[in-house]
Amino acid sequence: MANRDDLGAFLRRRRASLTPAEVGLPTGTRRRTPGLRREEVASLAAMSFTYYERLEQGRGPNPSPSVLAAVAAALRLDRQECEYLYSLAGHAVPVTPTPAGYVDQVLHAAMAAMQPTACAVITDHLGTVVAQNQLSVELIGKVVGAPDREDNLIWRWFTQPDWRARCGLEQDDEEWTRSIAAYLRGATARFAPDPTGVELIVALRAASDEFAQLWSNPDVTAVYCSMNAVSHLRTGPITLECGVVLSPLSSHRLMLLQPAPGESAERLAALVR
Questions:
Q1: Which residues pair with 256 in a beta bridge?
Q2: Cis status, amide bond into 116, omega within 30 of 0
Q3: Contacts of 242 (CB under 8 A, 6+ apart)
Q4: Distance from C-alpha of 85 to C-alpha of 99, rounded to nearest angstrom
């Protein structure tokens, strides 16, 4: 539900903190305060002065996401401020997928720092690998940049039995598989409209009867990990404990795959040596 009083207070504070020069308006000589006027914000947001005035006064209808987007642009809000604005209005912040070729630099630095103690990959919201560290290349092969959807971990899980056998544990396979499909359902809904996600789902339903059946279920989950074990030719099976770090700045996620204590940790350490 909208918090109208706090929403109005936030808009007033942000408007007062902006100078005309910051939004490309002439400063003028008749301003009693350094901030923007209400009518200037309304003009920048392409809405009526009366409507914007009611927003600041905590009156009128609850603003829609499109109205909030216009106000956020007019007030030059950053991502955290946008999240706060949307939350005050009772809406989820719309998230857009990152462009092709982009790699979240914060996650990339964290991935580099984990080498060589953990296998790490960075994926986009659809499970496509955009970066991986050297240990992950050694354990699972080079995935990033592979053609014909081969760079997508979800695609590999449902269409490549050899990959699945190498990167999964038989006793958890059914639950693991359900969670992957449930994650994709949630991700494509959250980032809609997303033609790339629609194309992936259509291709998966055509290529995998298992996925097509799971897709009919309404289950949704926010996080998944597509690997919990790796069978390496030189060391044998290594059980992995998966952690997922979500970026606050993009749609990317960092999957950290660390060996379970005991034999798996010893095998990975031997491989690193």
A1: 120, 243
A2: yes
A3: 225, 227, 228, 255, 256, 257
A4: 25
Alpha carbons 101 and 135: distance in angstroms, whole number: 22
pLDDT of residue 47: 92
Angle between helices 49-57 and 4-17 (to 10 degrees): 120
Token pair, residue 111, equals: 């991935």
pTM of the predicted model as reported, rounded to 2 decimal places:
0.67
Q: What is the pLDDT of residues 229-257, one digit of tens each?
A: 777 777 778 888 888 888 877 788 898 88
| 133 alpha-carbon distance from chain centroid | 20
- First and final CA of the chain: distance in angstroms? 56
| Residue 260, both tokens | 């379970």
User: Distance (Å, rounded) from C-alpha 131 to C-alpha 101?
Assistant: 10
Q: What is the DSSP string of 192-209?
A: -S-HHHHHHHHHHHHH-H
The residue to which tokens 């964290």 are assigned: 110
Euclidean distance between CA atoms 144 and 142, whole angstroms = 6
